[in-house]
Amino acid sequence: MARRIGIMGGTFDPVHHGHLVAASEVQARFDLDEVVFVPTGVPWQKDGKGVSAAEDRYLMTVVATASNPRFSVSRVDIDRTGVTYTVDTLRDLRAQHPDAELFFITGADALEQILSWHRAEELFTLAHFVGVTRPGYSLADVHLPSGTVSLVEVPALAISSTDCRTRVGSGLPVWYLVPDGVVQYISKRRLYAAEN
Ligand code: ATP
Ligand code: MG
């Protein structure tokens, strides 16, 4: 049987438990052999908004996923030059896994933008799309071509990377919002600190 591979794309600045729960839930529901986390290079939606160094985002994602034998992290987006487009991510992973079935996992907020994505029609030919619920965003208003996207309800965690960054900048804890190793990595590298 073809290998079933989930792809969890994100800025992961920093990776948090919302990302991990979403990936874990889709892994179980879709009986995926593996979920590959793919930190973006320069995300086109976030161009110029001061995203942390790709290497820091990559390493935090490695730290966060290390204990799960079904999770891995790919460098395809951070090693490609230029802005990250999902179509390139999917093409690269397809080339690495020619016989696999690919499942692209995306939160309700990102799903809202799916039809406006660069070369959106091609995306559906490269992977199945799995939209996951996210507190604060409704999947009900998302009108997608029927049969293109599976919707999955995941345990609700109202956590965002933006909030984690703001909390660190204000001296508030991010313990239990992100994995312990990520708390320690943020502090070691002094990410998101007010003076930065
Ligand atoms: P930022 O606030 O910087 O945008 P974020 O928390 O939205 O960060 P991203 O790296 O932008 O995290 O998200 C990567 C993917 O994970 C997206 O598809 C997003 O919708 C999804 N996602 C993020 N947080 C959650 C959450 N709490 N529950 C479900 N899905 C989530
Ligand atoms: Mg986001």
TrEMBL record:
<keyword id="KW-0520">NAD</keyword>
<comment type="function">
    <text>Catalyzes the reversible adenylation of nicotinate mononucleotide (NaMN) to nicotinic acid adenine dinucleotide (NaAD).</text>
</comment>
<dbReference type="GO" id="GO:0005524">
    <property type="term" value="F:ATP binding"/>
</dbReference>
<dbReference type="InterPro" id="IPR004821">
    <property type="entry name" value="Cyt_trans-like"/>
</dbReference>
<protein>
    <recommendedName>
        <fullName>Probable nicotinate-nucleotide adenylyltransferase</fullName>
        <ecNumber>2.7.7.18</ecNumber>
    </recommendedName>
</protein>
<feature type="domain" description="Cytidyltransferase-like">
    <location>
        <begin position="7"/>
        <end position="167"/>
    </location>
</feature>
<dbReference type="InterPro" id="IPR014729">
    <property type="entry name" value="Rossmann-like_a/b/a_fold"/>
</dbReference>
<dbReference type="GO" id="GO:0004515">
    <property type="term" value="F:nicotinate-nucleotide adenylyltransferase activity"/>
</dbReference>
<keyword id="KW-0067">ATP-binding</keyword>
<keyword id="KW-0808">Transferase</keyword>
<keyword id="KW-0548">Nucleotidyltransferase</keyword>
<keyword id="KW-0662">Pyridine nucleotide biosynthesis</keyword>
<dbReference type="GO" id="GO:0009435">
    <property type="term" value="P:NAD+ biosynthetic process"/>
</dbReference>
<dbReference type="InterPro" id="IPR005248">
    <property type="entry name" value="NadD/NMNAT"/>
</dbReference>
<comment type="similarity">
    <text>Belongs to the NadD family.</text>
</comment>
<dbReference type="Pfam" id="PF01467">
    <property type="entry name" value="CTP_transf_like"/>
</dbReference>
<comment type="pathway">
    <text>Cofactor biosynthesis; NAD(+) biosynthesis; deamido-NAD(+) from nicotinate D-ribonucleotide: step 1/1.</text>
</comment>
<keyword id="KW-0547">Nucleotide-binding</keyword>
